[in-house]
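**User:** My hope is that you can spare some time for a protein that puzzles me. I have put the entry right below:
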Amino acid sequence: MPNRLAHETSPYLLQHADNPVDWRPWSDEAFEEARSRGVPVLLSVGYSSCHWCHVMAHESFEDAETAEYLNAHFVSVKVDREERPDVDAVYMEAVQAATGQGGWPMTVFLTPEAEPFYFGTYFPPRPRPGMPSFRQVLEGVRAAWSDRRDEVRDVAGKIVRDLAERTGIALGSGAPQPPGAEDMAAALMGLTREFDAVRGGFGGAPKFPPSMALEFLLRHYARTGSEGALQMVQSTCEAMARGGIYDQLGGGFARYSVDAEWIVPHFEKMLYDNALLCRVYAHLWRATGSDLARRVALETADFLVREMRTEQGGFASALDADSDDGTGRHVEGAYYVWTPEQLREVLGEADAEQAAAYFGVTEEGTFDSDISRCRGGGASVLQLPDGAPPADAARLASVRERLLAARERRERPGRDDKIVAAWNGLAIAALAETGAYFDRPDLVEAATGAADLLVRLHMDTGGRLARTSLGGAVGGHAGVLEDYADVAEGFLALAAVSGEGVWVDFAGLLLDTVLHHFAAEDGTLFDTADDAEALIRRPQDPTDNAAPSGWTAAAGALLSYAAVSGSSRHREAAERALVVVRALGGRVPRFIGWGLAVAEALLDGPREVAVVGPDDDPGTRALHRAALLATAPGAVIAVGAPGSDEVPLLEGRVLLEGRPAAYVCRHFTCDAPTDDVAALTARLGG
């Protein structure tokens, strides 16, 4: 019989609606139940494409005896971390502080006042060396709560006080300055020290796509001409594109590589990763003309539209890592890996031999489906180990088509159809720019469709955002800072490409909400609004995780909006928010890459480009395209007909002796207009 999750809109929660555990969503009612019964709360946090979340669910939450024990002695609360990043953030900080590590599923035991006192992640059904079973944990927590409740409450209170002392990021007194050129140089040096010069990327295994750091390096190269910065981007992008982390048949990137060589991925595909990487590769092509970057940007964009777009026009959150391997078992990577025999079945002997050599498929294999590690299990993740272009491109194209068609007949991984506002904002920006660069109006149309959905369904007339929707029904959870920031970023990118000023207006509405409800008097930014549900603390984190932090994303959107609107209030807020980059950029550049990228835009101006001319004039289109292809960091672009006042940047701009013209400005102080595409490109880089 379904439990209390049956009426939720989160696909992750709905996956647990038929568990024998009497799950409840995060709510006041759940904690009131715990108080009335005098029992602790089990908080379990995960997300729909989390492999180990599924494992623990099958092992423990679907087990009748475990569920009976839980229901008798606990109130069980299940949270989708993608739907409630605020709840996830505050308790993950507690887990990491207590254990030195974190991850999902996250397992936390709370008092009825929501104060945490015992922490963990995955617990197995039977004890392992150094790891108790989940039943042992439950019994231990129950005993402590029954026999030493006052001691448990004291521990929980101390944890909450310690967390409170860790919050409240201060930017200092007086007039602290945003980062300067010397801070960018220090950040570059820090990234250089951590760069893997042999295999690309930063650090060792597991290795994550460093999207935000790559954006910083591209902007730094554009501003300074640093060949070292560009080389790190090129090496990393080539290594990822040739590796197993990239889907060599269908396009798109997996979440991360379990090894340092980018060979074996953790196979889930996330919307935010693919949106960010699509933009990185498009920007790399813009800077260098790389054929590889062009191919990967377009293949990733096509993957997003083909496999992630929902019926409502938005983009789904994720594709699972697991699927049926053909024997009835759901295992990680089954949809993507190949054996030599499988190649022969699809391609025949001759083409299979060529495909195996080209994609690195061996008899030993590179992937063990039971443990997702490079130990050899007979199956291989497709990669391009030598990187050499094929001698017969047409034959290779045929091989790809046949393998992709055969793969389509396998059971597909599950898709989390939940629309997350922030991640759709990232996708809007990526698809709009990629479509504009490569003359793909269908991609711009897809970006516009997602933007329309966000305005129609997620956004109210007062500029407040709902974080999620599913199947056209809006979720009940308020947007957090990253939602406002990333959606505003997407709207501004779409405005620059389409010339439709209404997207600037919508971005301004969202950013006004940021200033009214997320910003403190000293310019620091909180992840939740001042009128959001009160948790044990108000989350606040300027560092990047899998996507740009809400703090630095807001700084970037505020800076761009200030450039297109002329608002000194928004620019000052952006500068104030960027002060934190000065403190962190030289110390942890990998974890504040987007803040560094925004700081590069601030150092460059950012440049404001107004293109004026009739929509159907080839001269207008040529100047607009030259502006879009400019590499000037964070350049802001507006295009419109003469006399247009839709966007403040266009006000007062006139034709040049009757011809379309482009104005390049900083702080609304402009150079002489030009009607020459080459001259415009020279002013902006490209």
About this structure: The two ends are 61 Å apart (CA to CA).
